[in-house]
Amino acid sequence: MNFFSRRNQILLKELVKTDFKLRYQGSLIGYLWSILKPVMLFVIMYLVFVRFLRFGSAVPHFAVALLLALTLWNFFAETTNMGMLSVVSRGDLLRKISFSKPIIIFSVVANALINLLISLVVVVIFSFLNGIHMSWNVIFVLPLLVELVLFATGIAFILATIFVKFRDLGPIWEVGMQAGLYGTPIIYPIIQVSQTHPTIAKILMLNPMAQIVQDMRYILTFSNNTNPTLWQMTDKPYLIIIPYLIPFIIFGIGLWIFTKNSSKFAEII
Amino acid sequence: MNDNIAVKIDHVSKFFHLPTEATNSLRTTLVNRLRGIKGYKEQHVLKDIDFTVEKGDFFGIVGRNGSGKSTLLKIISQIYTPEKGNVIVNGKLVSFIELGVGFNPELTGKENVYLNGAMLGFSREEISDMYDEIVDFAELEEFMNQKLKNYSSGMQVRLAFSVAIKARGDVLVLDEVLAVGDESFQRKCNDYFLERKKSGKTTILVTHDMGAAKKYCNKAILIENGLIKVSGDVNDVANQYSLDNLQTEVTARSDLEIDVKEEWIENLEVNFINQQKITPNDEVKFEVSYDVKKDTETYIAFSLTDVDRNIWIYNDNSLDYLTKGKGHNRAIYTCKLDQVNNLKLKLQVSIRNKRDEMIAFADEKVILINRNDISDDDKSAQDSATGLIQRNGSWEFE
Asked: Which residues form the ABC transporter domain (chain B) (predicted)?
């Protein structure tokens, strides 16, 4: 199957456009919400964790690091949650028109990506306000974003396929995401774990989301060794490579499972 | 592949897994799995369907509810994949299946047309080219910038239908569309179909309406229980379909039977020797056989009732040939109904004894009489053929 055929390109473009248009349909300030929402969520997290609970007080610029990680996590959550529901919610369409099914997932990812990019602009503005000076290293954000997108898309493929048959996955994934949020060094700095339980910290860092978050934080130069990445925590290359490989494997498996089952979607829904 | 083929359905079979248990809980699933119960049964919807639609055909698919024609349509549209066999579609296929082709109520009519077009595989430029035609056909000019949720249901269907038929696909697939819109819109659709038939574009139409099938289609198939029953000429298909429907209708009605003295007669059977579908020039010929169990005199009485008008058209009996004593009886009856026009008849055969009491009923049978000697363009003959009896008068103008 050719995902990049002209027909699929047209369809993807239209679906993304429609979703974007519909997202804030009927709201007064419209697209502004895609900036306001992360900012407001950040303010809450900031007040709770940085001001009152004093997480990451040893880490410089932890507020910005928190905002960055939250932004990345929101993208992951949005892609997987919406991706999981997307095939079922387009059920009426699937039963009427034949089109390339992966496009459904790709349109969800594209929309989440648009949101992520908007939010990242907010992050950059905040980091300037916080007095962070960025170097050309920032360019490495791009491959990390690719890794993030592949990981989230792969999981969305798997979830969407299973969700068609087993709707139980809805609440399960909700709980899973909650666990993931606390299992990833987002609201707390990884040193808080590694100081007392270095092995557990390393295991946590094998999670691609943790690795992406820490690498991003490193690249945007507001951490140095105070908020270390996996390759700063260990020197075993076979350990370091694991979180970088997982997204590619997950994406491959996800795409394979999805395309293998997609011909039956119309019947099952 | 032959260039002239638009759609080729190559020995297609399709089954669904239907759950047998009403519950879908984990516990029952596990228990059933342990017991070796599969928890579903295979429903064979289509069995070895094989036909080709050539370019320029107006192809009809007819069949009763649940015969598998919509499934077949979804297979042609590549929404379902068949378990066995192949579907080859030559060119771009545009389908209109079920009413309202996945429109989004929050988008305006115009946005929906573009989205729908993209779904069907058309670019924005291509849709812009046909946009005016679509809106024009749907007669919704002033509503195109309204959200779809403010449309009436009829307007939505009209728009969806217009997109389907005005989209420049190579093969158009339509499911039960002849009830779309109000009278004037239907007339417009009728004109469009007739024009399309002449234009040489390929169309596949699923319908219950035999009048429509005869009017538009040049070829057709009749599907029954997932098998092709009749294939080829649209008139054969339509007549067979009408006959089948009549048969079930009549059988359903005859369920309300009167209590009969069963013990007198056994094995009463009525069988046609001639076709059940005939023209007025053919003979009606059937055989009645039965066993008399007790010593009595019997005769056969039957009636041919017009199903539509519910009147006796033709009755006869064998009162002059009374049977005597016990034993097997068999008789063949022949007659001709050459004075009538198109008729749907039911044949009710009963056995009576000497005191004119009915002692046995046979299952009702149907006969379909269709005239085939009127040409399509002879309007006078066609009009006169709507009566019960064939015309035989003459005009004298002064």
From this structure: 26-250
* Chain A residues whose beta carbon lies within 8 Å of the beta carbon of residue B115: 14-15, 18
The closest alpha carbon to A206, from A187, A231, A189, belongs to A231
3-state secondary structure of B189: helix
Q: CA dist B56 to B192, B193, B329, Å?
A: 15, 13, 55
Of B16, B95, B118, the CB nearest to A11: B118
How far is Cα of residue B265 from the mean position of the Cα atoms in its chain? 37
Chain B CB contacts of A13 under 8 Å are 118
- The answer to whether the CB of B152 falls within 8 A of the CB of A44 is no
Q: For tokens 């990981």, what's the residue?
A: A151
Among the listed residues B353, B340, B335, the one whose alpha carbon sits nearest the alpha carbon of residue B311:
B340
**pLDDT of B183-215, one tens digit each?**
888 888 888 888 888 888 899 988 887 878 888
Closest partner CB to A98 (pick from B78, B104, B122): B78
Numbers of helices and strands, H then E, in chain B: 9, 18
What is the spatial distance between Cα B89 and Cα A268, in angstroms, rounded to a whole number? 24
Q: How far is A95 from chain B (nearest CA, A)?
A: 6
Q: Tell me how far apart the alpha carbons of residues A187 and B199 are, in angstroms, rounded to a whole number.
A: 68
Task: State pLDDT tens for residues A173-215.
Answer: 999 999 999 999 888 888 888 888 888 888 888 899 999 998 8
Q: How many CB atoms lie within 10 A of CB B106?
A: 15
Q: What is the DSSP string of A88-105?
A: HHTHHHHTT----THHHH
Question: Residue B74 belongs to what H/E stretch?
Answer: helix B69-76
Cα separation, B185 vs A244, in Å, equals 60
Helix (H, G, I), strand (E, B), or coil: what is residue A172? Answer: helix
Q: Is A266 helix (H, G, I), strand (E, B) or coil?
A: helix
In chain A, count H helices and then E strands. 13, 0
Run of H or E residues at A69: helix A62-89
Q: Does B78 touch chain A if contact means CB atoms closer than 8 Å?
A: yes
Structural domain spans, chain A: 6-268
Q: Structure tokens of B228? A: 């092709």
Distance from CA of B185 to the nearest CA of A (A): 23
Write out chain A residues lying below 8 Å of B45, CB-based. none
Residue ranges of domains in chain B, CATH in brackets: 5-246 (3.40.50.300), 262-369 (2.70.50.60)
Q: Are the C-beta atoms of A255 and A109 separated by less than 8 Å?
A: no
Instruction: Tell me the CA distances in angstroms from B175 to A81, B164, B185, one per residue in order.
Output: 35, 11, 17
